[in-house]
Design a protein that fits this description.
The chain has about 140 residues and is mainly β. The chain has a single domain, classed as Lipocalin. Strand 7 and strand 8 form a beta hairpin.
């Protein structure tokens, strides 16, 4: 009996460790609102103001994660200002909480805070196709079906 209890305890510990090591499934639609700082003009942040002056703008983003193969993730992003369906590519780090990635003109740093919530930071430098500088961090939540 003592060995059975020890074996069951070992199996429970091993199962819990494997569950913690499971790569999170990010497929689905994620939405969020936040603020960004921008120099310049982009599809998501059009302006008639002087583009070399900094502006703080509200943004509402939708990320549609279409596929995932282990730690590699792909999909498209759009904003309330522009339904661009811009392609994105991400990689989930071994800690299963950190995600890095890119789209056609910028980069992502993401922290997964729960299975259905993430904090997304986005940055873009003036070497991008739009010649704009953009930076901002805000939360996104998975849309429940």
């Amino acid at each position: 009996m003592k060995y059975l209890v020890l074996a069951l305890a070992f199996l429970a510990t091993a199962t819990a460790a494997r569950a913690q090591d499971a790569v999170p499934d990010l497929k689905g639609t994620w939405t969020g609102k936040g603020k960004v700082l921008i120099y310049g003009n982009t599809t998501h942040h059009p302006t008639t103001a002087t583009p070399d002056q900094p502006r703080v703008r509200d943004i509402e983003m939708t990320l549609t994660i279409e596929g995932q193969d282990g730690r590699l993730v792909w999909g498209r992003s759009s904003s309330a200002a522009a339904d661009t369906k811009e392609p994105l590519a991400w990689a989930i780090a071994a800690d299963n909480k950190t995600v890095v990635g890119a789209d056609t003109d910028g980069y992502f740093q993401i922290n997964l805070t729960s299975p259905d919530r993430m904090e997304r930071c986005y940055l873009q430098n003036a070497l991008s196709r739009t010649k704009a500088i953009v930076v901002g961090c805000y939360a996104l939540e998975r849309v429940k079906k």
